[in-house]
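Materials and Methods. Structural model of Trafficking protein particle complex subunit. The 241-residue sequence of Trafficking protein particle complex subunit from Laccaria bicolor was retrieved and submitted for structure prediction as follows.
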Amino acid sequence: MAYTQPHPRLSVLSTSSQSSVEHLSPTASSTRFSLPSAPSIQATLNKAAPHRPNIYDRNLNKTRGTEVSASAFAFLFSEVVQYTQKRVNGINDLERRLNTLGYRIGTRVLELMVWRAESSSKTPKRETRFLPALMSIHTQVWKAVFGKAADAIEKSVENADEYMIIDNDPPIERYISVPRDMSQLSCSSFTAGIVEAVLDGLGFPARVTAHNTPTSQFPSRTTILIKLEKSVLDREELMKQ
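The predicted structure was written out as tokens:
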């Protein structure tokens, strides 16, 4: 899902139709009259408008570069955040729910990317090492969802099980205004859920969280923190031998 520039205006179209029914009153004549059946409204619309294929019938490989309006996505995500905010008890609960929603999206993103890889290549490759898988998330997953690659990947110096994906200007945060009393909130928890789902699907279970790390140059800078499970580190050590 890539982004286009927000459309300058949104419009809602509505249609209405009226129909009239003629009432026939019986007369003294014994002659019986019959009216031809009128064509259905759907048949009339089908003749007037060209046939449009069902979205589920479209070839998924041909929609690889399909773009979604940024204004439409911003509006939808804003409604999701506001709806969720009214049903939580605090920032942690809100971030947890956004992470859950992102996880559901991430499972579908991975499924779509794997299907496209298998259908376009006779010998599809599955990453079995963590760093190549992390690089594919940094580049391919980010491009598929946000239309651009993330800005950097970092490894924690203190903890061997922690890695970070840096996004200096997250598209998901561009149209979100966070009040001062909720300054610790990171709506990129939605993105963290996507990353966590992809890692789980690839066989690298981890706990993924989002953190605001603003700088003077990038006030919306966000760090996606990945904390791997011990089983992943043990497997990586065995594969090095």
